[in-house]
Write a structure and sequence with these properties.
It is built from one helix and two strands. By secondary structure, the chain is mainly α. The chain folds into two domains: 41 residues; 161 residues, E3 ubiquitin-protein ligase SopA (Pectate Lyase C-like), CATH 2.160.20.80. It has a two-stranded antiparallel sheet with strand order 1-2.
């Protein structure tokens, strides 16, 4: 009986590897299909685009509401007026992406890379930006009302006329940020590094 067990084990392992490879192939094909759909209709609502490479893509006005773009590469992508409301953008690379007037309300951007992103007049109300990197991001006239920015890196970000009523900036770093709108004082500060020092007024 001992001589029979080894070939059976090898067979079972082989089946497991084949199954895993087959599942991966199906997942890759599904991603390709979703990308074609996005290219054709400029819309991919609630679809799975996890890990997709869309670097430099022109997605002007695209509807990606509710889409899963976690881990995707969207660096230098054009997303003027795109609808990303409720989308999952966790750990997504949006470095230097153009999100002018994009709708990111209630989207999840945990640990997302938004370095030097253009977020002028973008809607980020109730958006989850925990530990997101927004270094040198342009947030001029952006809507950050009730946004969650705990431990976010906002070094040298531009907050000119930005709406931040009830935004949570606990543990965030705003050193060197451009702040000209007194409305920012209506946000929650706790262990927050600001241009005027460490602010604990909301602790």
């Amino acid at each position: 009986m001992k001589h029979i067990k080894i070939p059976i084990l090898i067979l079972l392992l082989s089946i497991g590897f084949i199954g895993a490879a087959s599942a991966q192939s199906v997942e890759t094909n599904n991603l390709k299909l979703q990308l074609v759909k996005l290219q054709y209709f400029n819309s991919c609502e609630d679809c799975n685009l996890t890990g997709a490479n869309l670097s430099g893509a022109d997605l002007t006005g695209a509807n990606l509401s509710g889409a899963d773009l976690s881990g995707a590469i969207l660096s230098k992508a054009y997303l003027f007026g795109a609808n990303l409301s409720g989308a999952n953008l966790s750990r997504t690379d949006l470095n230097k992406a153009n999100l002018y007037k994009a709708n990111l309300s209630e989207a999840i951007l945990t640990e997302a890379n938004l370095i030097e992103a253009n977020l002028i007049e973008a809607i980020l109300s109730k958006t989850y930006l925990y530990k997101a990197n927004l270094t040198k991001a342009n947030l001029t006239k952006a809507n950050l009302i009730e946004a969650y920015l705990t431990e976010a890196n906002l070094t040298e970000a531009n907050f000119t006329k930005t709406y931040v009523f009830r935004a949570n900036l606990t543990g965030a770093n705003l050193s060197g940020a451009i702040v000209s709108n007194p409305d920012i004082l209506r946000a929650k500060f706790c262990r927050t590094i600001t241009p005027w020092g460490v602010d604990n007024s909301g602790c």
